[in-house]
Amino acid sequence: MGAGRTVTLEYGTIAGAQRGWAKISGTTVNNDLVWMDWTTDGGSSWLQCGPFAVDRGPGTSKTSAAKKTMDVSGYQFRACGYLKNAGQTKCTSPWW
What is the distance between the alpha carbons of residues 90 and 73, in angstroms, rounded to a whole number? Predict the structure, then answer.
């Protein structure tokens, strides 16, 4: 994302199901934002989970809620973040 911050799309097994979430980390500041989008039409439209604000001080990470990624036919995901002091939004690409 720049300014020493990174937004990543991550996944893992939670409660027996593969789930994905967005994470912002690095030189974060309070009120940087992170969220996860998901689409079923290749990104023409999407649903957004979040945003969730960094709220535990500089340099702390924050994640979005986790969304089930297996057995959800046609779903694609991306992670997005907003840098408070830069006033910019960026998302991972391409959709996963």
Answer: 26
